[in-house]
Amino acid sequence: MERAPETPRPVRAPSYLDAALPLVVLVVLVGTSVALFGMAAIDGPMQVAMILASMSAVAVILKNGHRWEAIAQSGQKGLSTVVGAIFILLAVGALIGTWNMSGTIPTLVYYGIKLISPAWFLPVAFLVCAAISLSIGSSWTTAGTVGVGLMGLAHMIGVSPAMTAGAVIAGAYVGDKTSPLSETTVLAAQLNGVDLFRHIRYQAWTAVPAGLIALAVFVALGFSQRGGLSDAVVSSELAHIDQLFDISAWNLLPLLLLLAMSMRKVPATLAIMCSALLAGVMATLLQPQAVAQFVASADESVVVVSIKGVWLAMANGFSVDTGMAEVDALLSRGGMDSMLLTIWLIIGAVTFGILVDDFGLLGKLVAPLLHRARTTGRLFASVVGTSIGLNIAAGDQYIALLLPTRLYASEFARRGLAPENLSRATGDAGIVTSALVPWNSCGAYMSVVLGVSTMAYLPFAVFNYAAPLLTLLLGFTGWRIARLPAGDAADTPAAPSPAREQ
C-alpha cells in the first residue's frame, strides 16, 4: 500500500517576539561570556555564545514551519560568503610568522625606533596606514602587515598599544571606505547603481572631516605618550634585535612585493601568501642564524632546517628566546593556527546573521523604522542604526552593507533622494563600524592581528565613529544631500519588509 505524500507544513511569517528572541539570546549570552571571562571571552566562550544564539534562531525558524533542508542551505550560503575571509586570515597568519623570521617586522621596528618620536608616533601611524590603505584598498592587509609592525614598535618605545591599535584601524579604514581599489567601496557603489567615482566624491564629504578629526585627536594623544622606556632600555632592545637579525633594507622586499601586487589588484589571499613565501625564502638566505635558532635541530642539513623553518613559521608562527621579554613578545607571533579561534568566531557570527536575515527576522524588526522615518534626518538615522545594528547582530560588514540598501533604496527614490546618499550612509555606518564589534568578522580580525582587545582600542578608533556621526549631521541639516532631478523620484510606497517565502 503506497503512502500518501506528506503534506508540507504551512510557513508562518515571524512575529515580533520571534524576531526579537534570537537577538535577545545573543546579547545575553555574549554579555554573560564577557562578564564571566573578561578579555578571555574571545578565546572560546564568545564562540560558544554565537553558536548557541544560532541554535535559538534555528528553533524559531523551525517553529514557523520552515524545513531543516532550507535552514541547512541558508547556513551553507552564509559559510560560502566567508571562505575568502578565512583564507585571508590563514595567509596573514603565515605572513606574520615568516615576516618575523625574515627580519621584515624587526627591520620596521628597528628603523622606526630610530626615526619616530613617541610624541608623533600616533599621528604618523594613522597617516601611514591611511596612505597604504588608500593605495591598496584593504584595511585587513594594511592592519595585518604595516599595522603589526607599528604595534611592535609601540611596545618598544612605550606608546599605548590600545591607542596605537586605534590609530592603525582608523587609518586602515580611510582606504577601505574611499579607495577605488576597495571591494567594499566598489560594492557600496554597485549596490546603489552609483558611478564609483561619484560615490567616492560623496564619501569624501564625511571621510575627509572624519580623518581630520582623527588626526587632531591623535596629535593631542601623542603628546601624552612620552615613552615609557629609558634610552638605555631602548638601546638594549635594539642591540638584541641587531644580534639576532641582519638588519638591512633588503628585509623590506616582502613588504614592497605585497604593496606592488595589491596595487595591481592581485587577489588579497594570493598577494599575502606570495609575500609570506618570499619572506620565508629570504629568511633562509639572509637570516640563517635566526632560522637555525628557531628550528633548533643541530643534526640536520641546512636545506632541511631551512624548509622546516619556513614550514613551521607559516603553520605555528615564529618564536625566539632572547632573554628580553619585550623583544620575545614582539617576535614570537604568527602562524595559521593563531587564526583558528577567530575563524571559529566568524563562522558562528555569520551563520547567525544569515539565518536571521534569510528567514525574515531582521526584516520584521526593521520595517517599523521605515514607517517612523518621516523626515530626511530620521531616514538617515534609520539607515545608520540599521547598519550598525546589523554589524552587531549579524557579525558581518557585507550584510550590514547589503541589507540596508535592499531595505531603503525604494524609500530614498520615493522621496527624491539620489542613491549616492544611501551609498554614503551605508559606507559610513556599515563598513567602518564593523571593526568596533568584538564578534564581527572585522573586529575579531583586528583584535587577533594587532593583539589588542576590541573594547580596548574602540575609544581610540576615532575615524570609525566620526564618519557615521557626520553622516547623521548631513542628514539632519540637509547639507550635501543630493536630490534626484524633478520627475525621477519614484512614485511608489515604501519598500516592504524583505521577509522571504521559503
TrEMBL record:
<dbReference type="InterPro" id="IPR018461">
    <property type="entry name" value="Na/H_Antiport_NhaC-like_C"/>
</dbReference>
<feature type="transmembrane region" description="Helical">
    <location>
        <begin position="456"/>
        <end position="476"/>
    </location>
</feature>
<keyword id="KW-1133">Transmembrane helix</keyword>
<feature type="transmembrane region" description="Helical">
    <location>
        <begin position="48"/>
        <end position="66"/>
    </location>
</feature>
<dbReference type="Pfam" id="PF03553">
    <property type="entry name" value="Na_H_antiporter"/>
</dbReference>
<dbReference type="InterPro" id="IPR052180">
    <property type="entry name" value="NhaC_Na-H+_Antiporter"/>
</dbReference>
<feature type="transmembrane region" description="Helical">
    <location>
        <begin position="78"/>
        <end position="99"/>
    </location>
</feature>
<feature type="transmembrane region" description="Helical">
    <location>
        <begin position="119"/>
        <end position="141"/>
    </location>
</feature>
<feature type="transmembrane region" description="Helical">
    <location>
        <begin position="202"/>
        <end position="223"/>
    </location>
</feature>
<protein>
    <submittedName>
        <fullName>Na+/H+ antiporter NhaC</fullName>
    </submittedName>
</protein>
<feature type="transmembrane region" description="Helical">
    <location>
        <begin position="379"/>
        <end position="400"/>
    </location>
</feature>
<keyword id="KW-0812">Transmembrane</keyword>
<keyword id="KW-1003">Cell membrane</keyword>
<keyword id="KW-0813">Transport</keyword>
<feature type="transmembrane region" description="Helical">
    <location>
        <begin position="20"/>
        <end position="42"/>
    </location>
</feature>
<feature type="transmembrane region" description="Helical">
    <location>
        <begin position="339"/>
        <end position="367"/>
    </location>
</feature>
<keyword id="KW-0050">Antiport</keyword>
<keyword id="KW-0472">Membrane</keyword>
<feature type="transmembrane region" description="Helical">
    <location>
        <begin position="268"/>
        <end position="286"/>
    </location>
</feature>
<feature type="transmembrane region" description="Helical">
    <location>
        <begin position="153"/>
        <end position="174"/>
    </location>
</feature>
<feature type="domain" description="Na+/H+ antiporter NhaC-like C-terminal">
    <location>
        <begin position="171"/>
        <end position="479"/>
    </location>
</feature>
<comment type="similarity">
    <text>Belongs to the NhaC Na(+)/H(+) (TC 2.A.35) antiporter family.</text>
</comment>
